[in-house]
């Protein structure tokens, strides 16, 4: 399977609707092929939900949607057993999580207890109802949207849940030129009927398996480990990158290389993906927060300090 061609096809179909966001779409396609969950963190009205719906059509997979609100219950997500008075038995009613692509819309409007109902599904690709486990369809991906924490009726996602998202990205406002083009193309009605499926669930699973064949040298692996270790020992970070983050960056770099048409990973692949994969997992200490230091600035500093690391020198001398 040609991963590069597949990723281009998905991106081209998505860009029939989404204007001027090629870099974000490319990261989302990478995350999907890496079997990683995605968090879209942005202001209302910039196209987060439209983007997710468009991609779900292009992927040709079963999709579901949950609108997160403060009174949403865990059973509204995973399902529950309901007593049937006619048969005298408890019947299983599975929730909307039983799908390939789950749109968790405005995920941080639900209370933390409800948000935590997704933890098992996101990590183990299964759910538990009354002590019984049910596997989720393959692939299973959560594409969540989140409003800024400062917005009304929002709750901060717990660190355990943030760590389960492979990437966090923001759409941002369009430029005036992009917005004019959007009005011309989408002003009256969003033409979702113009988007065609270019793959399916079975093909996506096969593509995800094929990624394991991409070569990632010991030197590049050491570079990823050094990057994670540098965040854990940074004096301005209370929490650095977890081992889950290290594995995520490892997998993401392989997919990125395949999307570039290569069968090997370079340090530049790792550096390109460091921010979307790591930033949302890093937590500033109180002193850094009060001084106005950003996680982005700290990560840039870490990458710069590692620029001349032995790991990179080893890669440079590899044949």
From TrEMBL:
InterPro entries: ATPase_AAA-3, CbbQ/NirQ/NorQ/GpvN, ChlI/MoxR_AAA_lid, P-loop_NTPase
Keywords attached to this entry: ATP-binding, Nucleotide-binding
Domain ChlI/MoxR AAA lid: 230-301
Residue stretches making up the ATPase AAA-3 domain: 37-167
Pfam family membership, one: AAA_lid_2
GO molecular function, one term: ATP hydrolysis activity
UniProt similarity note: Belongs to the MoxR family.
Designated name of the protein: MoxR family ATPase
Native source species: Flintibacter hominis
